[in-house]
Design goal:
Blueprint lengths: L11 H6 L4 E4 L11 E5 L2 E4 L1 H19 L6 E4 L6 H13 L5 E4 L11 H19 L1 H5 L3 H18 L11 E4 L6 H10 L2 E6 L10 E4 L5 H53 L4 H19 L4 H8 L5 H10 L1
Parallel strand pairs: 4-5, 4-6, 6-7, 7-8
Antiparallel strand pairs: 1-3, 2-3
Helix pairs in contact: 2-8, 3-8, 4-6
Length: 324
């Protein structure tokens, strides 16, 4: 399991070594990104790493606090080639460690994941149903090889689109977007649904549409590895703290229930030994009477003998005398 409080502050040297300061060409820059541009060198914008560190610290703080909430979820969106293996590796690692609530999209953002979730949920069910059919030999025996092959093709297509989010039961609380300029559809959907966004913003992107922008290089694999792992660790730390707190509360509740059960047990013993008021006296008397009845009932041979006694036959003799 993830240890509590394991995260350390990131340094400017680490950001520099990962190449987070390299932006895009000057001709491709977005005018709104000038706030975090340090300078232009060899026709390439250099990002101010102090702004990168500030944005990353704010983003990790938000992610950690969100993870502490009950049932909170997040989707990591990284469909560009450099980001795909890093995103899958980090999310799957957290799932193996038992950290819930984190999902990923690495192939293509399908429109409607946020704005039309009930329809997308049908595709989740279809994907799970196809997986069940392909695993069942009895189901496959009912159909031809061609039909089973079509099932496999449909399953692979749905798996590529929804494999990382098919276990979701509702829309996520936040999105972490690796390239906000490339994932424009996901950004627009999050704005329509008021979903909080955290994203890596390069010099060609608009930081104003992201709630927690992280100005950094979104092309270098080292830069992506550093930032994505940092976000994943923040989510793991927040969830671990929430689970520890929930377990602590559960233990306290179990302890209180056990104590209350002992108190009620002792109260029952006290009331059975001592009569406190008239009401308890009556209850005690009733129980005593019931016990006495049960004890006396088998010991009543006298009553039975009285019933079984035969009367003398004087009347019969008298009747015979009269006839004579």
């Amino acid at each position: 399991m993830v240890e509590k409080g394991f995260m350390k502050d990131i340094t400017l040297e680490e950001l520099l070594e990962a190449g987070c300061h390299f932006g895009h060409q000057v001709t491709r820059h977005n005018p709104k990104s000038r706030d975090f541009v340090f300078e232009a060198r060899d026709n390439i914008h250099i990002i101010d790493l102090a702004k990168t560190k500030e944005g990353l610290d704010e983003a990790t703080s938000f992610i950690r606090n969100l993870a502490k909430k009950d049932g909170s979820t997040i989707i990591v969106v990284g469909t560009k080639r450099q980001a795909q293996p890093i995103v899958i590796e980090q999310v799957e690692k957290l799932k193996k460690e038992g950290i819930p609530g984190i999902y990923y999209v690495t192939n293509r953002w399908i429109g409607g994941i946020l704005t039309n979730f009930p329809e997308v949920l049908k595709n989740f069910k279809k994907l799970k149903e196809l997986g069940y059919r392909l695993q069942s030999d009895d189901e496959k025996a009912k159909y031809t090889k061609k039909e089973v092959g079509m099932w496999e093709k449909s399953r692979q297509k749905l798996e590529s689109f929804y494999g990382g989010i098919c276990d979701m039961e509702r829309t996520p609380d936040a999105l972490f977007i690796v390239d906000t300029h490339m994932e424009d559809l996901a950004v627009r959907e999050s704005m329509r649904t008021n979903t909080t966004t955290v994203g890596i913003v390069d010099t060609n992107a608009d930081p104003a549409v992201i709630n927690y922008p992280i100005p950094a290089n979104d092309d270098a694999a080292a830069s992506l590895q550093l930032i994505i792992s940092r976000i994943a660790d923040a989510w793991a730390e927040g969830k671990q703290e929430y689970m520890d707190q929930a377990e602590k509360i559960k233990k306290q509740e179990d302890k209180l229930i056990a104590e209350n059960a002992k108190k009620t047990e002792s109260n029952i013993k006290v009331t059975s030994n001592f009569s406190i008021d008239n009401k308890t006296k009556e209850i005690k008397l009733k129980t005593i009477e019931k016990e006495s009845i049960v004890e006396v009932k088998p010991k009543s041979p006298e009553k039975k003998s009285v019933v079984k006694e035969k009367k003398p036959k004087k009347e019969k003799t008298e009747k015979t005398d009269l006839t004579n």
